[in-house]
Fold:
Amino acid sequence: MTEIAKPLFGHPWIFIRGVPSLKFLPPEGPLEVAFAGRSNVGKSSLINALVGQKGLARTSNTPGRTQELNYFVPDGYSGEGNDLPPMALVDMPGYGYAQAPKEQVDNWTKLVFDYLRGRATLKRVYVLIDSRHGIKRNDEDVLTLLDKAAVSYQIVLTKTDKIKAPAVPKLLAETSEKIRKRPAAYPAVLSTSSEKNEGLDELRQAIAETVGINNWK
Structure:
């Protein structure tokens, strides 16, 4: 069975590496998509929901828990020679956590920004925005950096189950307008709820198309 024929998200996924600095990055091979967002935006919950494994990405009630670039890949590949997974998901450290020590925040920031600027296999960053709060100043700072680094990104609204259903289309339209003139922004904005499993198929489809895999389920 070819890599393309293997289901992408119906496959068990595994954690392969936490990267505290660039020297620990795995060799460039499979295409990568990364997830960025403010601390407590629901990044780990969304990754777990995407792959259907509750305990894959660590979730915590403590913002700022993820301090490394965490790599996840479909299981069943040796990683040797041509037996590489078709893609990797990268959980990036949350930003905007004011209670973290400044030195720690600076280290996280440098790690993330160096990764964004220098990773040739990174195809897209999915920037998660809490639907209850919309795009905040620190989100805009990250979007500006992505624009400057010419890294393609797409906005994903999270926790849409926490707002009234009629408010979702309005928020999608407002968010689309806010990013309309940003050069690296993918124009379509997605909405999701990990709690209600809403919007996950659309996000899976978007990821599969980004990395060029047809059989995404």
About this structure: The longest strand covers residues 122-130. The mean pLDDT is 88. The first helix runs from residue 43 to 51. Strands lie at 13-19, 31-37, 69-74, 87-91, 122-130, 153-158, 190-191.
